[in-house]
Amino acid sequence: MLTLPKQFDENEWFIITVVLLSSVLFKLPKRLPTVITILILFLSMAIPKIIDHSIAAAWPYNLYDLTDSRKFELFDVILDGVYCPFGYLCIYFYDKFHPKGFKIVLYILSWTVFAVFFEYIAVKLHVFNYRGWKLIYSFPTYMVVISLFLLFYKFVTYYYKRTLEV
């Protein structure tokens, strides 16, 4: 059973604020087919979940804790919703601007810097509590994840368009 936090403090407020601010996404003009949007949102939750459970919670690594408790609590679940807007906006603007060549490198770097800065704020507000992890490790991690995320989008878009042609 999910437990409530023992103390309601800045990390819970941060998570709630980001989830509420994410509601603005519903006001954006629709750019992506619904099925692709759903895949992007699920992948946006799955990637951090896999990473968090692989290197954060799993022995022998246990490099960081999420929120206040080492136990799984309600705000660990709500935290999953924080990742969705990041992934959606990354793909939304990629689809809108279609960066090519060197601009794709700048695009990935820009999103990486944004992600590291966002993580820095989350660390300061105790959403992530490092126990061996360093913020600098996140930079190459985000570079790889964002690159793979964009490749996934190109892959599903390609197959989506092919199914429309049939």
From TrEMBL:
Q: Which UniProt keywords apply?
A: Membrane, Plasmid, Transmembrane, Transmembrane helix
Keyword Transmembrane helix attributed = yes
Segments traversing the membrane: 12-28, 35-57, 77-94, 106-123, 135-153
What name appears for this protein in its UniProt entry? Transmembrane protein
Task: Please spell out the taxonomic lineage of the organism that makes this protein.
Answer: Bacteria, Bacillati, Bacillota, Bacilli, Bacillales
